Amino acid sequence: MNTHDADDILVDDLPAPRHSRRLAVVTETYPPEVNGVAMSMARVVDGLNRRNHDVQLIRPRQPAKLTPPSSGNPMVDEVLTKGLPVPLYPNLRMGVPSKRALVKLWSLKRPDVVHIATEGPLGWSALQAAQHLALPVTSDYRTNFHAYGRHYRLGLLSKPIMGYLRKFHNRCDATMVPTEAIRVQLVERGFERLSVVGRGVDAQRFDPARRNAAMRESWGAEPTDLVMGYVGRLAPEKNLGVVLAAYESVKVVQPRARLVFVGDGPMRAELAARVPDAVFAGQRSGDDLAAHYAGLDMFLFASLTETFGNVTTEAMASGCAVVAFESAAAGELIRSGVNGWLAGPGREADFVAAARTAAADPAARRAVAEGARATARRLDWGDITARFETVLEGAIARAEPAFGLSGLQPVI
């Protein structure tokens, strides 16, 4: 083979180079805040940066007590805006109307696409600014705000909230949703241009190998005792009464069973009064959170307001036997009796019965936990970021003929 032939082969075999894009990502929650939207957005931003994109992250400035106020990635250009506490969620911030500032920012440094992760005042301002500048816009549908109404006596606002969300997302070039079930529900409610982009899980961090005997002992659990747990916000919309019912039912046949709550929220005092023997571990993060998951034998997740529920996949990766309703991530990923246990949506008696079934059979529980771990290991964040990138590229491609954009904007 001569050199010319070798060069031809090498050139032919090389994949087409990926365009480096300038992306503006707007979100009203981000680490060090601890919630599913914040953590998954941080993963996506990091993944986009690793895929050689220039990411401008626009978010509210967080309180000084949350340290450090940084994305943790020096390659990401952060733009901090004014923020206010979120009603009912005082530890979270929402942005304030900022259209004029964003128009100025993006006029000077024009992104190829704007991605909006949250639909609050900052998100709405970003949508208006992007459309003013004829920029393609994508968005996420991440939180069922309208479903929270019945838990906070806001039922009359459910329809107006859904109307706002539909108007918001239908003004975008594409909206990403986490599951096929959510896509179908939103199509029925008049949402358009929906793409399913799931969630990944860090199966190296969330690993059953992090199980810690000393931690379990601090919870009052012997090595063979059953430890049941919940991770997340302690709030009415999480349906925690069903978790308590399952625990109380299991305790009848296994008096040494323990219940651990990881997280904090407005229901903590009420839960402590109702279940004085429960363990309240407070809010945890990072490897410490992973160790708490790994210390559980069963994970009880009764929420019906999730669009996905990252805690489900984190628990599965940690080798927990998950008991959940057939909804969100659990409904998408779990086959009952194979890699978890499911109850029909809202069928509380079935949820309690599933918990008792799981508690009564350690061998089945171990097999299900292994199946859960195997499922979670397939949920790679790299694959999720690639799907996310594909939706962004589609929005850019559709915008280019309309606005005469060919190729990349020069970096300013």
Mean pLDDT: 88
Q: Compute the separation of the termini in Å.
A: 46 Å
Kindly report the oligomeric state of this protein: single chain
Structural class: alpha/beta
CATH fold naming of the largest domain: Rossmann fold
CATH architecture descriptor text of the largest domain? 3-Layer(aba) Sandwich
Low-confidence regions: 1-16, 404-412
Which CATH top level class of the largest domain fits?
Alpha Beta
The H-level CATH homologous superfamily of the largest domain, spelled out, is Glycogen Phosphorylase B
With strands numbered from the N-terminus, the spatial order across the biggest sheet is: 3-2-1-6-7-8-9
Give the total of domains: 2
Fraction in helix: 40-55%
Report the biggest beta sheet as strand number plus sense, adding barrel if it closes: 7 strands, parallel
Q: What's the number of helices?
A: 15
Percent of residues in β-strands: 15-25%
Overall geometry: elongated
Keywords: Glycosyltransferase, Transferase
Enzyme class: transferase
Protein name: Glycosyltransferase family 4 protein
EC number: 2.4.-.-
Describe, in plain words, how this protein is organized in 3D.
By secondary structure, the protein is of the alpha/beta class. It folds into 2 domains: 211 residues, Glycogen Phosphorylase B (Rossmann fold), CATH 3.40.50; 169 residues, Rossmann fold (3-Layer(aba) Sandwich). The chain is 42% helix and 17% strand. It has 15 helices and 15 strands. Helix 9 links the parallel strand 11 and strand 12. Helix 2 packs across helix 15 and helix 3 crosses helix 4. The relative contact order is 0.12. Its EC number is 2.4.-.-. Keywords: Glycosyltransferase, Transferase.
